[in-house]
Amino acid sequence: MTYEPLQLTADLHQYLLAHSTAPDEVTADLIAETRANLPGAAGMQIAPEQAAFLRIIAAVSGARAAVEIGTFTGLSSLAIARGMGPQGRLICFDVSTEWTDIARRYWQRAGVDDRIELRIGPAADGVTQLSQDEHLDLVFIDADKENYTTYWNELVPRLRPGGLILVDNVLWSGRVLDPRNERDQGVVDFNTAAVQDPRVELVIVPIGDGITMARKL
To answer: The whole model's pTM is what?
Structure first.
C-alpha cells in the first residue's frame, strides 16, 4: 500500500491550532506585537504550534543546558526556557539588539529572564567560545541558512549523548526541491549533510516550515 501524506490545508491548520494547547497571554501578546510592529520581518517568527512543540520537547527531555542560534523577538527562547524550568540555562545568539530588546521584555514578563543569557554578535564566532565538552542537552537553530552546516558542525560535538538538536525551516516552503539561490542551496546542503551524519539519528517533522529533530548517538 502506498502511503499518501496528509495535505495540511488552511482549514485543517486552523483545526490543528484549535485542538492544541492555546498560547498563554504572554506568548499571544509577543506573537501579536511581532506581527503588528515588524510586518516585514514577522515571517521569521516560529509558528505558535512550533513554540508549543519546543516547550514540550524541552520539558520531556529534561534539558538543563541549551543553546539557541537566532533569537529574533524571542518566541522560541521563551518556549525553551519555560520548558526547561527554573534549573535550566539557555544561551541565545543573535545579531540584532532591536529585535532582541523585544525578546528581553517578554522574558522578563514571563519570569524566565534569569534563565537566559543573550550574546549579541555573529553566532558562527560565538559558538566556538562555548566549552568543547559534551555538555549541551538541547540546541535550536533558526538563523541564516547559509551557515546551518557550520552551526551544526560546531554544536553536535558539544551535545551530550542522547542530547537533541532541532533545526527550523528545513523544508523551506518547498524550495528544497528546486533551489534557486544561495539561501535555498544552504538548506539543501544542510539537509544532505545532516542525514549523512553518523553521529545522530534524525527525522524531519512537518510542523511549521519543517523541523529536523536529531538525537546524538
So the answer is: 0.97
